[in-house]
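How it folds:
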Amino acid sequence: MPYRTRSDLQRTAWCSVFAAAALASVAWPGWAHAQSERESLEALRQTTLALIELLVQNGTLPRDKADALLAEARRRGAAAVAQAPAAAKPETPVVRVPYVPQVVRDQIRNEVREEVIARAKIERWGVPNATAEWTDRITVEGDMRLRAQLDRPGHDNPSPQDFLAASLNGVTRAADFAAGTSAGLPTGSTQDDRDRLRVRARLAFNAKVADEVLVGLRLATGSATDRVSTNQTLGQDFNRYTFLLDRAYLKYDPTPWVSLSAGRMPNPWFSTDLVWNDNLNFEGLAAGFKWPVQPNASILPFATVGYFPIRESAPPRSSRSLVGVQVGAQWEWNEQTRLKFGLAQYIYNNFEGRVDGDYDAISGAGRTYGQYEYEAGLRQRGNTLFLTNSPLEIQAGLTPDKARWGLASRFKPWAVTVAAEFSQFSPYFIGLSGEFVRNSAYDRQEIIRRTGVYLDDSRVFGVQGRATLGAQQVRNVGDWQLSLAYRWLGSDAVPDAFTDSDLGLGGTNIRGLTVGMLYGLARETQFGLRYLSARTISSPTVQPALKDRYSIDTLQVDLNVRF
């Protein structure tokens, strides 16, 4: 006998009794032709008592509840019999025959049956281990990854002393390599091997509040100041890891062709990791639109717009924000071939640096001093940077630890993204993707006027191609997938803060190759292997005459589990 909760058993008993009574009231009028009203009431009472006893014998109703029902039924039955008119004398019997039309009887029977069935479905009568209905609207998912990462920089890379000395000219493309102490000693690392064990854990909750409303929450490991990585490096003296709010957003779909999102949300753009890191989440507002077409249409146009504050407007510091728009279409060429295309422009407001004048030789820095800095917690590596420190501070003897680096260029990149999927060779899958980006706001003469720095080796465009072969998703034992990608991303094509953080250890001014493999060890359990080889494009010290470069090879060995 399936287990049911006490509340379910009670509801079953009551509804069974009431349903029997209702059906009896419909079926018994014919019996009234042969019985008196007293006899009818007695028969109904006996039927009710027998039905309750049967529910107890079947284990549907507990004995204590059955006794209470029997007592109540006897009391009401006795009262009804007592109030019924006395039986007529045999010679003059009185027979009362209430007439209920067949249509009414059918309607009553159908209404009772539908109500009982509907209530049973909602409350899951008789379902083993049944849970409340609202739990079906909440889904929980997550993943965990263990990674061994080996970084091998080129031993002919410029030394940290070279980067620090070159930065005295007031320009660099690797501020972290040019970092130093107040005594002028470098703190960067450009030639040392590094081996790390890392872990990533993520846990997501999605609540379908209504058919049109979704609430999404996700927790993840990582650093509160690193937006493009959720990795946690092992070897922290056994200290506990932080588990941070990675996503918190509301999604509202008023119609099938309009979707509105707000909060900290997944990437709303159709893109690759050339421009946006796979781990990056966006904060702000986004709206997606699909052109209403016939259900069997082969071309599906779409559009996306978004506004994302990056630094709040908190006087005396000015705000920073990102505004984007994208249009594109998906083409279902046939059942085995799918193509997708997107054209986007992203506009970064108030990102460019300026020489900061809010500094006094006597009183020092003013209230707004430092607002044009491209902060160490935001940048990665690759963009052309210049010193935004006041000339008065520089003349007083600027030490490396006081350097404030700002972006030399403004950024309004255009991005073209294409992707194709081919499943003609099922169960194997072929995927191709590519992206091209160019910064339309780069102006060398404007940079000279604003910063006083002349640049002749900056690159303002990027391109990436990727091919995938094997299972579309590695989810079961024996599934496999191979991938090959090449990237060429100029120094000032996009802000380096939001790009991929793996190839070349992240940022722009990188060209290189990535080879990867995934293999299914068990259900939702994957073994992964990736080799990444990268080197810089333009001079990282912004001294082209030296013909310097920075190169690094990385090996990542992963064990992924999803649930």
Notes: Helices lie at 6-27, 37-57, 63-83, 102-123, 160-166, 391-395, 444-451.
